[in-house]
Design brief:
Hypothetical protein af1432, mainly alpha, 14 helices, 0% strand
Length: 273
């Protein structure tokens, strides 16, 4: 049975517990008990490598959660209440979105772009690294396609290609290019996970494409965990953005492009309709 201190830490402290209903508290305790049981049945922690979940076990975890893993960051606050977001400027720029909306993804993409720049990547790849995961503020699933779509009117075709197809290439190692299958994915998907057929077909198409190296270099310079102590500012990429990002004078969300609604959803994620 977990002790009181462990339970308090898991649930976010006394204040968070006081705001929970009796049913929510019971569910939380049951989840914690399940975790304790799983740990007790797992191989000894001293083993060189603990047992990884199978894809079926990952699938079985769906009904134990209180949220969908595909939900975007702006729409999910975990056990806490969402906070009122600061208003956006009348004609918002990409920098405004980094400052006021991209709270969860900004550090990751900035570090990835910083790594790509250090590694001497082409500007299309550096920009793709800077933008590749930003749609996850709205939605996690299919984020490569979502991110490519939301930036397509403002960047080159090569950058769009790199953003869109990095998602499929992540599941396929390319040792010659320096890309290894991420350890994190064994946790997220299960050690025996096989990508859906459309991902496999996409990979095969991109592998034969003349621009294959572009999304592959995004995966190589992507970071699957944060670099502690590394702080990167958007200003580092001002010149690259100036040369490669077409900022609409009306502001993102108000330029009447087919993707303007995506930017408006980021501006007003609390609107009910």
């Amino acid at each position: 049975m977990p002790n009181k201190k462990t339970l308090l830490e898991k649930l976010g402290g006394p204040d968070a517990i006081n705001q929970m209903s009796a049913e929510a508290k019971a569910d939380a305790l049951e989840t914690l008990l399940q975790e304790e049981l799983n740990r007790s049945l797992a191989p000894d922690a001293r083993d060189a490598k603990r047992r990884l979940p199978t894809a079926a076990e990952v699938e079985a975890q769906i009904e134990t959660r209180h949220h969908r893993l595909g939900v975007g960051n702006l729409f999910y606050a975990g056990k806490q209440h969402v906070r009122k977001l600061p208003p956006m400027p009348e004609k918002p720029t990409l920098a405004d979105f980094f400052r006021l909306r991209f709270h969860k993804t900004a550090h990751h993409v900035l570090q990835s772009a910083n790594l790509a720049q250090k590694n001497g990547m082409p500007e299309e790849v550096i920009l793709a690294c800077l933008l590749h995961d930003l749609s996850q503020e709205l939605i996690h699933v299919e984020h490569g396609w979502w991110s490519a779509q939301m930036f397509e009117p403002y960047v080159s075709e090569k950058t769009t290609f790199a953003i869109r197809y990095h998602q499929a290439l992540r599941f396929y190692a390319d040792e010659a290019a320096g890309y290894h299958y991420p350890e994190l994915y064994l946790e997220l998907f299960g050690e025996d996970y096989k990508p859906e057929p459309y991902i496999e077909a996409t990979y095969q198409m991109v592998r034969k494409h003349k621009w294959y190296s572009l999304p592959r270099l995004v995966t190589v310079n992507d970071l699957y965990s944060f670099e502690p102590g590394v702080v990167v500012n958007l200003e580092q990429f001002t010149d690259i953005l100036g040369r490669n990002f077409k900022q609409p004078p009306e502001g993102l969300g108000f330029d009447n492009t087919p993707v303007a609604h995506i930017w408006r959803s980021l501006i007003w994620p609390d609107h009910p309709l």
